[in-house]
């Protein structure tokens, strides 16, 4: 077993990125096998319970109200409607259900509404996950008391590149929210987005910031920028600069640094070839988003996913008491960028 570390230096991480590609994949695959069955992939889905109209300015996000992306702002769904979706997810084999809302942070008046959703989803026998933006300590405890198991909040990018992407909140705000989530006893889901024009060293910086948190996130979503017309990054066409092999390297280094975390392919998967996804699985990715929609961007349809699993000899990961078709309806991409919430 690889010991968990929280003291990674930038030089060490860059040295991993610089390894010959086969050597990097070998090391990552070895770490993967030490902690997981490499034939299993966790499958996640997500319900956007409140879409668009966000006051933040994340340069990749179609849900920011200041950008003209055609995303229509919606009100918070009713508890009944959310519970019906959760029932459907459970009937399809889900063991965990994630609710995402495009908020900078929930108002205190929103918390009882979300808490009611969490309680009712939990009563169905599902694990619960949410991504609602920044949380205060009090809000985190209230959500935990309602039965929330997981909370997603992404760091997005390296600290030194962060100011190029977001101006309406600080990296420290994100770290504070993750601390509140941990303090409340919930599990964390946190990752970032690559292909936004950052350097390799800055990609290393994102992974450094994640791995050197007091606890590794339980899930680490690695999003590849989805260029959405109307957003600053969508109009700048920066993602064309990211070499697919560089994306695989990022996955492999994340696996080596955070050996027990679920490394998740999230937004951007719909533009990846089957071959690229296969390389990501070989490099230690063991979780994907599954379904038609990833909040406001597309996702490969489920038939293509299952066909790819069959071709690669992979199977959906069983989650605790879940069935053969276990689907983890968890978020991860939402506010982390690209799609939905903060
Ligand atoms: S990523 Fe989240 S916080 Fe940023 S604009 Fe989109 S919904 Fe708002």
Automatic annotation (TrEMBL):
Keywords: 2Fe-2S, 4Fe-4S, Biotin biosynthesis, Iron, Iron-sulfur, Metal-binding, S-adenosyl-L-methionine, Transferase. GO terms for molecular function: 2 iron, 2 sulfur cluster binding; 4 iron, 4 sulfur cluster binding; biotin synthase activity; iron ion binding. GO terms for biological process: biotin biosynthetic process. It is an enzyme of class 2 (transferase). Gene3D superfamilies: Aldolase class I. The keyword Glycoprotein does not apply. Residues 39-269 form the Radical SAM core domain. Pathway: Cofactor biosynthesis; biotin biosynthesis; biotin from 7,8-diaminononanoate: step 2/2. Binds 1 [4Fe-4S] cluster. The cluster is coordinated with 3 cysteines and an exchangeable S-adenosyl-L-methionine. Binds 1 [2Fe-2S] cluster. The cluster is coordinated with 3 cysteines and 1 arginine. HAMAP family: BioB (MF_01694). Homodimer. This is Biotin synthase. It comes from Pseudoluteimonas lycopersici.
């Amino acid at each position: 077993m690889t010991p968990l570390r929280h003291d990674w230096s930038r030089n060490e991480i860059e040295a991993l990125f610089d390894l010959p590609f086969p050597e990097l994949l070998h090391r990552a695959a070895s770490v993967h096998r030490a902690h997981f069955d490499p034939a299993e992939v966790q499958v996640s889905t997500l319900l956007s319970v409140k879409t668009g109209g966000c006051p933040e300015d994340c340069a990749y996000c179609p849900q920011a109200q200041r950008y003209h992306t055609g995303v229509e702002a919606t009100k918070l769904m009713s508890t009944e409607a959310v519970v019906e979706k959760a029932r459907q997810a459970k009937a399809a084999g889900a063991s965990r259900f994630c609710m995402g809302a495009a908020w900078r942070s929930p108002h205190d008046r929103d918390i009882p509404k979300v808490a009611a959703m969490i309680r009712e989803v939990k009563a169905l026998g599902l694990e619960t996950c949410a991504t609602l933006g920044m949380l205060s300590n009090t809000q985190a405890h209230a959500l935990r008391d309602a039965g929330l198991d997981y909370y997603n909040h992404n760091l997005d990018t390296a600290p030194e590149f962060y100011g190029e992407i977001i101006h309406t909140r600080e990296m420290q705000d994100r770290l504070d929210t993750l601390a509140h989530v941990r303090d409340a006893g919930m599990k964390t889901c946190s990752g970032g987005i690559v292909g936004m024009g950052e350097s390799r060293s800055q990609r290393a910086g994102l992974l450094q910031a994640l791995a050197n948190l007091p606890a590794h996130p339980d899930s680490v979503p690695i999003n590849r920028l989805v260029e959405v017309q109307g957003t600053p990054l969508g109009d700048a066409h920066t993602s064309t600069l990211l070499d697919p092999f560089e994306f695989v390297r990022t996955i492999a280094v994340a696996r080596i640094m955070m050996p027990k975390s679920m490394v998740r392919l999230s937004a951007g998967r719909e533009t990846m070839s089957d071959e690229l996804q296969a390389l990501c699985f070989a490099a230690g990715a063991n979780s994907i988003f599954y379904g038609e929609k990833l909040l406001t961007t597309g996702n490969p349809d489920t038939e293509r996913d299952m066909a790819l699993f069959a071709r690669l000899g992979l199977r959906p990961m069983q989650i605790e008491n879940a069935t053969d078709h276990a689907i983890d309806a968890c978020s991860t991409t939402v506010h982390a960028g690209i799609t939905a919430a903060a």
